[in-house]
Design a protein that fits this description.
The protein is mostly helical. The chain has 10 helices and 3 strands, in the order βααβαααβααααα. The termini are far apart.
Length: 311
């Protein structure tokens, strides 16, 4: 924190998505609709899972935790994005910027580990179905979710501590629509070698460890599925994993294209596009993916709708 006192920057200006005025209103309407769908979809998923006793299983426990995580990190970014598009939220205080960075990192890192926990749950369900209720006990599920957010908190504290030591003594315009690590490193007039190294090491470990856990889980799942003689049984087993795999591929692809490269890279537009995917689009798509491809969720949602209409 000592170096921060040397900084003359007390607030930052977010450049936003675009400076073209003719695009501002269409973009505002688009992202407002996406955020409304995100909030409605994820909160709806939590309510449906909480309301329907048949969904009180480990798989849906993790899914409700994923929905809350999606809603939280989208809410950290999207309201500021909407204000910036209208030209009313471009300025953000130093403390506000650091707070946004902290909570964003917390929820995004937690999502990586949540997806790994969900892959482990699918592995146990398909490879050890007779012991599923014992191995995935409510206590273990709660401990896994607590561990997910604990790892996210520790990693965020490390990244946040390194960012806080940097000085910002020239330009205060962040070439992004929210306070993210890479654009802040590009803006700093301090040495960012340690920070870039930490992004590659910690970020690489987070994505590598969780990706490896997911790959091993699905390798075991595939082996078990191929042993099933019934075509219907194989299709049912694949259907329970397809939603999770779709989410993993899109989420990790956009993260890796943003963070696992040198911070000095010039591709600002590429960073913004990739960031839009995992900060706004994925949180909206996740409840759609899981509800449209999951018969239990569709049945529970239809039942809840009928009860609300009839009452």
């Amino acid at each position: 924190m000592g170096e921060r006192n040397q900084s003359t920057v007390t607030e930052f200006l977010l450049s936003g998505l675009t400076e073209r005025r003719e695009l501002q209103l269409p973009l505002f309407c688009l992202f407002l609709g996406i955020y409304a769908a995100t909030a409605l979809g994820n909160l709806g998923m939590v309510v449906v899972i909480k309301w329907n006793a048949r969904l009180h299983t480990p798989m849906y426990y993790f899914l409700s935790a994923l929905s809350l995580t999606d809603l939280c990190y989208s809410s950290v970014v999207t309201p500021r994005l909407l204000a910036g598009i209208l030209g009313r939220g471009k300025a953000i205080s130093y403390a506000g910027c650091m707070a946004q960075l902290f909570f964003f990192c917390l929820f995004v890192i937690s999502e990586c580990y949540m997806l790994a926990a969900m892959a482990y749950d699918r592995y146990v369900a398909i490879c050890h179905p007779l012991h599923y209720s014992v191995l995935m006990s409510p206590r273990l599920c709660s401990l896994l979710v607590a561990a997910v957010f604990s790892v996210g908190l520790v990693d965020t504290a490390i990244h946040g501590g390194c960012i806080l030591r940097l000085s910002f003594c020239s330009s205060n315009t962040i070439a992004h629509y929210f306070c993210d690590i890479v654009p802040l490193l590009k803006l700093s007039c301090s040495s960012t070698y340690v920070d870039e190294l930490l992004i590659l090491v910690i970020g690489g470990f987070n994505m590598g460890a969780t990706s490896l856990a997911i790959l091993i889980s699905y390798a075991c799942i595939l082996t078990s599925i191929l042993r099933i003689h019934s075509r219907a049984g194989r299709a049912r087993a694949f259907s329970t994993c397809s939603s999770h795999l779709t989410t993993v591929l899109v989420f990790y692809g956009s993260l890796m294209s943003t963070y696992l490269k040198p911070a000095s890279g010039p591709a600002v537009l590429q960073e913004k596009v990739a960031s839009v995917v995992y900060t706004t689009v994925i949180p909206m798509l996740n409840p759609l993916i899981y509800s449209l491809r999951n018969r239990d969720v569709k049945n529970a949602l239809a039942e809840l709708t009928r009860r609300k209409v009839s009452s």
